[in-house]
Design goal:
The complex is a heterodimer.
Chain A lengths: L5 E4 L3 H12 L4 E5 L10 H12 L8 H5 L1 E5 L12 E4 L5 H12 L7 E4 L6 H4 L5 H5 L1 E6 L8 E6 L5 H14 L3 E4 L8 H19 L3 H7 L12 H7 L3 H12 L5 H5 L4 H8 L12 E4 L6 E5 L6 E3 L6 H4 L5 H5 L4 H19 L8 H11 L6 H8 L1 H10 L6 H6 L5 E4 L2 E5 L5 E3 L9 H7 L4 E2 L3 E5 L4 E6 L5 E2 L1 H17 L2 E4 L9 E2 L1 H9 L3 H19 L5 E3 L3 E4 L1 H8 L2 E5 L2 E4 L13 H11 L8 H12 L7 H6 L8 E3 L5 H14 L16 H16 L5 H15 L11 H16 L2 H13 L6
Parallel strand pairs in A: 1-2, 1-4, 2-3, 4-5, 5-6, 7-8, 17-19, 18-20, 19-21, 21-23, 22-24, 23-25
Antiparallel strand pairs in A: 6-7, 9-10, 10-11, 12-13, 13-14, 15-16, 16-17
Helix pairs in contact in A: 1-2, 8-16, 8-17, 16-18, 18-19, 22-24, 23-33, 24-32, 26-27, 27-31, 30-31, 31-32
Chain B lengths: L4 E8 L3 E2 L10 H16 L6 E7 L11 H8 L7 E5 L5 H14 L5 E9 L14 H6 L7 H11 L4 H20 L10 E3 L2 E3 L11 H5 L20 E11 H6 L6 E10 L8 H13 L8 E4 L4 H11 L12 H4 L6 H16 L3 E8 L3 E8 L2
Parallel strand pairs in B: 3-4, 3-5, 10-11
Antiparallel strand pairs in B: 1-8, 1-9, 2-8, 5-8, 6-7, 9-12, 11-12
Helix pairs in contact in B: 1-2, 3-12, 9-10
Classes of the chains: A alpha/beta, B alpha+beta.
């Protein structure tokens, strides 16, 4: 069964977000909702959802093309048109009666091989299918997305006893490969996996913060980085999802949880929070929550509420010793002799033992639980990985010493750990007490697994080269935030040499959050401060030479970015023979933000691309102007699709939706190029650039922008240097320029800029604040 | 003049916002061909007699490129015997077309001419697709490539015209245009244009609800410290216009409707950094050549590139604003650069007839520092 057409019923936040993401996969989707009473426009709700999503940031859609794939409609007029849909997702209000009525109608409409799934987060599948035919039951399952559906990677899939195995496999595979989801099999239990544990964790975190008398900042400093949880912590997370939502989630869980479930023991309604909700402090969507932005007097001051007095005060960045202790490991945090230390232990011990008590009730394996929490709540480590960090015995002993129950699974793990590496393979402890390999699905290749079982071919402080099989090497950036420096370039040169001698192809890839944030500015700043100009220029030249060598290497190089690929990290993509990009790749030549221009061949490659674009308007200026705008405004693509519009990616560069499939796809792409008899690219035809006239034109335009208050004085300086490179410097339009001429122009312009105080101020500001300086 | 020259017809397309209006999908050559066709049909001129199609356009490239005038002859279904020449004097292009026809008639080089103008500011951007200014000139002459908005700001400073006064002028322009549209006073001059979205027969830039309050909210468009906003500037516009210019003898012999007689014309250069003041020099010359005083003029069409620009000209010349732009000006109607000169000159002729007056002036400013003016008299 192939999914070619889909529908989502229910255009609320979840339904419309799911529809958008199915469209991101290139599949046409019909989005239906009810006809509002007395509405003039019978499509109003679905249309409204589309209009809202078109403007939303972060954007639910990856491209304009995806936006056009969603057709709005209503359930009164258009339900019958769903007869040709392969997959219909129900995301209507959590009311069994309404869902039953809808399913009864769908039953008569859908084609036999279609799948109907519910995005319910609270209603058991067994109740949903009550009264339906056998045929409907075999086509039905729960597909539980997380908000926002484009960005949260978890999809919990729940099959019923009657669900057809082939249909289940088809949806799992579509969700995995086309939607990029981490699909986790959950059982038909309340809250499934992630929300069952997540809700408990939030409740425990709130209770203990109130009981111990912690401030929201103290609590959030603990329930975040020290345990690999997003920096919002618990109070910040409540603000994000909506404080008013929590009582509803609790109510529906309490209605269906087993009688002796531990959540019932810790559930309580904090009067303080009830008052906040009554006063409209429901989180970011309201007038604030535990935190708020005070805009009085035109400023933006972050404030937090005092949990004892209800008063607001400026939220200061605080240092919590117990959190700082996290550098020595998680145990140092929970052992810390302080209130925040106690908080860490109480909140974490309750949550982890709750999780341990739920396997196999809610999932067959601990791996599923860990995956669910990592992908659905963006935890860096799952509950069982956290227990391993504490130590199974330490954890069980301390629970026992405090007279608290030790879950069976934890007891069984005593003397061992939940995960181990055996002969280079990652294994997990099963409920039967024996270890089994963590098996990756077909088409999933993780560098982390390769690193467990092998040593690098090459390695220095900033990069490494790995053998990933079938004659392919993988070049990995390893510095903090994957910044680029001389060491990366020197190892890359060695890697090209070694791959050329002993391998068939190379992939540039890593498993950091960001592919690379660009050149190491700290080093540039240091060299500039002591006027080591020759060294700075050597670094620029070195990068140019290495990237050029990569481009013309006698074997294919495929880059596989995910997350941010900025500056030099974008320039390596531009020089690669092909790019296989994760859909969530954010490319940009952002050099002007720190007062320089792309000088590792990025300006050159963008010009060559713009000139090669057959669809560009005629004349010497349009391609140059397009590149000037892209680089001059430091445009960053918000998806791989958008990167194609900006020319950072080529039309035929590949896009992989599932992060875990990226390396395998890139490797396959490289091998296919080898198979097809790879030849390195011929040097580009010389191009004719319009010369000083164009530079004058750009400068006039930028001065206009400055007059309008849209450009700063140093913008004028940086733009002029960029204009000089892109227009061909002093060369006349009658003088064709080659690659090396362009590299020389890049280097000269970079050196001119790096010597200006405006540029050094920008670099310093970026290093200190992480934000561009508008000088 | 030894041979009288008359305006014997005037027609135009509706004027619509560039980039968002109803004419965005119409090629400029098709747009002006429709206006020319409408003019020829309405005027009753025998097409075989037309000597030449003189077509004004400020950015003659892309779809406005090649010799568009000759192509428009074909598109409008005129006989092959009719010539075509495209002329560029920026915003003064199609008034220049009328002047050239008048000169040719007096030279005995033809009896009847179509003088048209067009600009699709949607399809050919201002500055064109390939702006390549001369670096040395850009350095030496500040006004050579100065943006029009900046020249408007310069006028505001020089003539001490406040933002509030400019906004009052803009509101008035919209009020007059809206009233004229409401009363059907614009219908006769408009030739409906067929577009992929259906027939378009109404101007689209007029905003009857323009208020001082709304205008006061806008940010300055060209200088963050300045006074000129999008609301006090003419909008980017798509449109075409056409006039029939003939010798009086020919018009009479062939039973054409004589709308007005040309009395004098003039061109004058000025400081490019205040190009908007260009009409002052041109008008003074034209008045002198016509042997009349400004106070003798009954009807004035003074193009509204910017509110402050028209106001500066009025202030310098001592113009009576109650005679200016009776049916609204470019701030409300729009300013498709190459089409404006034929519109305001054709309009001035039409107003002379409608209002039963004696003398009319049409004048406009031109980027780079020029003014152009035409004086008409009732025939």
């Amino acid at each position: 069964m192939e999914i070619k057409k889909a529908a989502v019923i229910g255009a609320g936040v979840m339904g419309s977000g799911i529809a958008a993401h199915i469209a991101n996969a290139g599949i046409p989707v019909t989005l239906l909702d009810i006809v509002p009473e007395g509405a003039k426009d019978r499509y109003a709700i679905a249309k409204g959802a589309l209009a809202r999503m078109a403007k939303a940031d972060p954007a639910p859609f990856m491209s304009r093309a995806a936006q056009k794939l969603v057709t709005p409609g209503n359930v009164e007029d258009h339900l019958e048109t769903l007869g040709d849909c392969d997959w219909i997702v129900e995301a209507v209000i959590e009311n069994p009666k309404i869902k039953h009525e809808l399913y009864a109608r769908l039953e008569t409409i859908t084609k036999p091989d279609a799948v109907v799934s519910s995005n319910t987060s609270t209603i058991p599948l067994s109740i949903l299918t009550e009264g339906r035919s056998q045929a409907f039951k075999s086509s039905f399952m729960v597909t539980h997305f997380f908000n926002p559906p484009r960005y949260m990677r978890l999809l919990e899939v729940v099959a019923g006893p009657d669900t057809d195995a082939a249909k289940l496999a088809a949806i799992r595979s579509f969700a995995d490969i086309r939607l990029g989801k981490g699909v986790v099999d959950a059982k038909d239990t309340p809250g499934f996996i992630a929300n069952r544990i997540g809700t408990y964790w939030i409740q425990a975190g709130l209770n203990e913060a109130f009981d111990l008398g912690l401030s929201v900042e103290e609590a959030d400093a603990i329930a975040s980085r020290p345990m690999g949880v997003p920096k919002t912590g618990i109070f910040g997370l409540m603000d994000l999802v909506g404080i008013d939502l929590m009582p509803h989630i609790a109510k529906s869980l309490l209605a269906t949880l087993p009688e002796k479930d531990a959540y019932r023991d810790i559930f309580r309604v904090e009067p303080f929070i009830e008052r906040m909700i009554a006063d409209g402090y429901i989180g970011r969507k309201g007038k604030g929550g535990f935190y708020r932005l005070n805009r009085e007097g035109g400023g933006r001051v972050k404030e937090s509420v005092n949990l004892k007095t209800g008063e607001w005060a400026t939220s200061e960045k605080i240092k919590v010793e117990a959190a700082e202790a996290g550098r020595q490991g998680l145990r140092a945090v929970v052992d810390h002799d302080s209130k925040p230390g106690q908080y860490a232990w109480r909140m974490l011990s309750q949550t982890l033992s709750y999780a341990a008590s739920l396997v196999p009730e809610i999932a067959d394996s601990i791996v599923d639980v860990d995956e669910a929490m990592k992908l659905g709540y963006a935890w860096k480590y799952g509950p069982f990985e956290l227990i391993d960090q504490l130590g199974v015995d330490y954890f069980a002993d301390r629970l026992m010493a405090e007279g608290r129950p030790v879950p069976d699974l934890l007891e069984r793990a005593r003397g061992r750990s939940f995960y181990r590496v055996e002969a280079g393979a990652l294994q997990y402890l099963g409920v039967d007490g024996t270890y089994a390999d963590v098996v990756r699905p077909d088409g999933v290749l993780l560098l982390a697994d390769i690193k467990r079982r092998s040593d690098p071919l090459l390695k220095n402080g900033s990069a490494a080269l790995w053998d990933i099989g079938n004659g392919v090497t993988c070049f990995e950036f390893t510095a903090k935030m994957n910044t680029l420096d001389d060491q990366v370039m020197s190892l890359l040169a060695q890697a090209l040499d070694l791959t050329g001698r002993s391998y068939k192809a190379m992939v540039v890839y890593n498993e950091g959050t960001n592919f690379s944030v660009g050149a190491n500015l700290g080093l540039a700043m240091f060299a500039a401060n002591i006027a080591l100009w020759a060294q700075v220029e050597a670094t620029v030249k070195g990068g140019q030479d290495t990237y050029k060598a990569l481009k013309y290497a006698p074997f294919p190089v495929v880059s596989a970015p995910s997350g941010m690929a900025l500056g030099g990290g974008c320039e390596i993509l531009l020089h690669s023979d092909a790019v296989q990009a994760h859909a969530e790749t954010y490319c940009g030549l952002v050099e002007v933000g720190v007062g320089v221009i792309p000088a590792w061949g990025g300006s050159k490659e963008m010009l060559l691309r713009a000139f090669a674009n057959k669809r560009r308007p005629g004349g010497p200026m349009p391609p140059v102007a397009q590149v000037f705008e892209t680089i001059g405004l430091a445009k960053v693509a918000k998806s791989a699709q958008q990167a194609k519009d900006l020319l950072y990616l080529r039309p035929d560069d590949g896009v992989t939706m599932n992060r875990d499939r990226l390396l395998a796809d890139a490797k396959a792409r490289a091998l296919a190029m080898v198979e097809a008899g790879y030849q390195p690219p011929a040097p580009p035809e010389e191009i004719r650039l319009p010369g000083p006239s164009a530079r004058t034109g750009f400068n006039l335009a930028v001065k206009d922008l400055a007059a309008q208050g849209k450009a700063t004085p140093h913008d004028i300086v940086v733009s002029d240097a960029l204009a000089e490179v892109l227009s061909g410097g002093a060369h006349d339009i009658t003088e064709p320029l080659g690659e090396d001429d362009l590299l020389t122009l890049e280097r000269q312009a970079f050196m001119d800029l790096i010597k200006t105080s405006g540029t050094l101020d920008r670099i310093e500001h970026m290093l200190e604040t992480g934000k561009p300086l508008r000088n | 003049m030894n041979k009288n020259v008359v305006i014997a017809g005037y027609a135009r397309s509706p004027f619509q916002f560039a980039k968002k209006g109803d004419l965005i999908k119409v090629r400029p050559d098709d747009l002006v061909a429709a206006a020319v066709k409408g003019l020829v049909e309405r005027s009753g001129v025998n097409p075989q007699d037309i000597e030449d199609l003189i077509l004004g356009c400020a950015f003659p490239e892309g779809e406005q490129g090649l010799n568009m005038a000759r192509l428009v002859v074909m598109l409008a279904g005129l006989p092959r015997s009719v010539g075509g020449t495209t002329v560029n004097r920026f915003c003064g292009s199609s008034m220049q077309a009328i002047h050239m026809a008048a000169g040719a008639i007096q030279l005995g080089a033809g009896d009847v001419f179509v003088c048209a103008g067009v600009e699709s500011m949607t399809r050919v951007p201002m500055m064109g697709f390939n702006p390549l200014p001369n670096p040395a000139l850009a350095e030496a002459e500040a006004g050579a490539y100065m943006p029009m908005g900046t020249t408007a700001e310069n006028l505001a400073r020089k003539y001490q015209i406040t933002r509030k006064a400019q906004e009052e002028f803009a509101v008035e322009s919209h009020r007059k245009a809206a009233a004229a549209q409401e009363a059907g006073k614009l219908d006769a001059e408009i030739v409906p244009i067929e577009t992929p979205g259906g027939s378009v027969d109404k101007d689209g830039c007029i905003r009857p609800d323009t208020s001082l309050e709304a205008l006061a909210e806008l940010r300055p468009a060209f200088d963050e410290e300045g006074t000129v906003t999008a609301g006090t500037s003419s909008p980017l516009t798509d449109g075409a216009s056409a006039t029939l210019v003939a010798s009086e003898d020919y018009a009479k012999a062939n039973g054409l409707t004589i709308m007005a007689r040309l009395k004098s014309v003039a061109i004058a250069g000025c400081d490019p950094t205040i190009m908007g003041i260009g009409p002052v020099g041109a008008t003074r010359k034209a008045l002198k050549r016509a042997g009349v005083e400004l106070s003798d003029i009954d009807i004035i069409e003074s193009n509204e590139a910017f509110a402050v620009q028209t106001m500066s000209v009025a202030q310098e010349l001592g113009m009576d604003l109650s005679k200016v732009n009776l049916d609204g000006g470019a701030i409300a109607l729009g300013h498709p650069l190459g089409a404006t000169g034929a519109r305001i000159t054709g309009k001035a002729a039409a107003l002379l007839q409608r209002e039963g007056k004696e003398l009319a002036l049409s004048t406009q400013c031109i980027g780079g520092g020029q003014g152009i003016a035409t004086i008409l008299e009732a025939a």
